């Protein structure tokens, strides 16, 4: 097994003679997804695309949690545009890499963390995992989840998570299809799945199969996410409540909504 770091924010462990990579989010408590982590993870995806014998990537959080979500500080005016561009660029890179990706979720998987996990092809979670899209609690919304989550779990459950901001247990996530497997050791469960279904396959054929099953998503991703960004940056961020929600969270106080 070989291990290396990318940008101080991502660790890559090559296992199964290089056919599987464990890619860890690192660098902060709770594995906060900021611009630096997005860049490092996008680079890992580009390297994965060039790795000829790679058949699956297992995406994990370092430590007891997958991710607390995207950096709240980087959602303040002046920084949010660059943050969204980097975050959504990461997902475009994931699509272009066309590598099978399995999410290994422990502890909290929230906000941008859930967007990242749910974008993987399958999600393996520990029984203590909690998952949610809490952006509305901060007075904002989740552009990627708003576009993609309904495709994974259906419009009703997706709207519930995005509009309520509530977190759900691993068992409820399993019931609605947000999680595919709940296991005491989600890494071992994901690795067993990869061994059974991918290691005996052609890496080249798997890449083409990924492109095929996500062909429609790849075709419309750029235009759809651009529309979500315009709504967020040009309309939502011009309201007083969006900035108030972010600042209230950072100042650890209740928001004072103006409903404007």
Question: Which terms would index this structure?
Answer:
260 residues, globular, 2-enoyl-CoA Hydratase, Chain A, domain 1, 7-stranded mixed sheet, alpha/beta
Structure explained in plain terms:
Helices cover 48% and strands 17% of the residues. By secondary structure, the protein is an alpha/beta fold. The chain has a single domain (2-187), classed as 2-enoyl-CoA Hydratase, Chain A, domain 1, CATH 3.90.226.10. A 7-stranded mixed beta sheet has the order 1-2-3-4-5-7-10, sandwiched between helices. It has a 3-stranded mixed beta sheet with strand order 6-8-9. The mean pLDDT is 97.
Largest sheet: 7 strands, mixed
Q: What is the ordering of alpha helices and beta strands?
A: EEEHEHEEHEEHHEHEHHHH
Q: According to CATH, what is the class?
A: Alpha Beta
Could you tell me the radius of gyration in angstroms?
18 Å
Which structural category fits the helices and strands?
Answer: alpha/beta
Q: Give the amount of beta strand, in percent.
A: 15-25%
According to DSSP, the number of beta strands is 10
How many helix segments?
Answer: 10
**Poorly predicted sequence stretches spanning 5 or more consecutive residues:** none
Averaged pLDDT? 97
Total of domains:
1
Distance between the termini: 54 Å
Strand line-up of the largest beta sheet: 1-2-3-4-5-7-10
* Large-scale geometry: globular
Q: Do you know the CATH topology?
A: 2-enoyl-CoA Hydratase, Chain A, domain 1
- In the CATH hierarchy, what is the superfamily? 2-enoyl-CoA Hydratase, Chain A, domain 1
- By CATH, the architecture is named Alpha-Beta Complex
